[in-house]
Design brief:
Blueprint: E1 6-11, E2 14-19, H1 30-45, E3 50-55, E4 59-61, H2 79-96, E5 101-105, E6 108-110, H3 112-118, E7 122-126, E8 130-132, H4 146-154, H5 156-165, E9 168-170, H6 171-177, E10 182-184, H7 189-201, H8 205-217, H9 223-237, H10 241-252
Parallel strand pairs: 2-3, 3-5, 4-6, 5-7, 6-8, 7-10
Antiparallel strand pairs: 1-2, 8-9
Helix pairs in contact: 1-2, 4-5, 8-9
């Protein structure tokens, strides 16, 4: 399909999805939700081995476009319905993609935009970028998984401060707190992300998917249950072509040529 609110490309195993409403700081409206869902379905169906999610212009994503659901006197808008229809499936789709997902945070990530970034597997941010849990500024609770991801990433005390004050958190502080993987100089964001995407595009994809599944699910399991999950994962991956190739390459002292299967 032809896209109007996003840019999408898929080349040599690397999919790029760019939120592209720069005049609105890439905030989400109904059309963008539809197009992002279509692009994510395309990623799964066309052989991508890594997805890079970023924004056009000077922002990553400012969350929901409030002008798209303006409140007028006497009119009630069911925000829960919007979460159920749009943001919940988006967050789950990003988390469940059978490949690594990189967020390249090129500017402000606010509201749902911040939590969409945090739903990705690896977050790399430009030094000028920032993260803002802006919900309390308009009388709302963090959504898009924010109340789940924040305490797990930075602990309850910092999660409470971020959510209840809505203060801007710099990319450098986000890295120091463990909220994101790396903060890099602005000029280094694209080459850093491109290099990481190429690495993942040639990595053993099935093992990376199992790593995602094991780590994201670990909070729901006892140590004994998690040991069983690790056992089952190793059993399955031990029969894979990539494991055989990895061992052969190690023995022959050469770089492995993984195919993702």
């Amino acid at each position: 399909m032809a896209f109007e609110t996003i840019l999408f490309s898929l080349q040599e195993g690397v999919a790029h999805l760019t939120l592209s409403r720069p005049d609105k700081l890439n905030s989400f409206n109904g059309a963008m939700h539809v197009e992002v869902r279509a692009a994510l379905a395309q990623v799964v169906g066309e052989g991508a081995r890594v997805l890079v999610l970023t924004g056009a212009g000077r922002a990553f994503c400012a969350g929901q476009d409030l002008g798209d659901r303006a409140v007028t006197p006497g009119r009630h808008i069911d925000l829960g319905e919007s979460i159920e229809t749009n943001y919940k499936p988006l967050i789950l789709a990003l988390r469940n993609l059978p490949m690594p997902v990189i967020a390249a945070v090129n500017g402000v990530a606010a509201g749902a935009g911040a939590n969409i970034a945090l739903a990705c597997d690896v977050v790399i941010a430009a030094r000028s970028a920032s993260f803002v849990q802006a919900f309390c500024k308009i009388g709302l609770v963090p959504d898009s998984g924010g109340t789940w991801s924040l305490p797990r990433l930075v602990g309850n005390a910092r999660a409470m401060g971020l959510a209840m004050l809505g203060d801007k958190l710099s990319a450098e502080q986000a890295e120091n707190w463990g909220l994101i993987w790396r903060c890099v100089e602005d000029a280094e964001l694209k080459p850093t992300v491109d290099a990481l995407a190429q690495h993942f595009a040639h990595a053993p994809t099935r093992c990376l998917v199992e790593i995602k599944r094991a780590i994201y699910g670990s909070g729901q399991h006892s140590l004994e249950q998690q040991l069983d999950i690790e056992r089952d994962g190793q059993s399955m991956l031990g029969a894979s072509a990539d494991y055989a190739e990895g061992v052969a390459a190690f023995t022959e002292k050469r770089p492995p040529k993984f195919t993702g299967v």
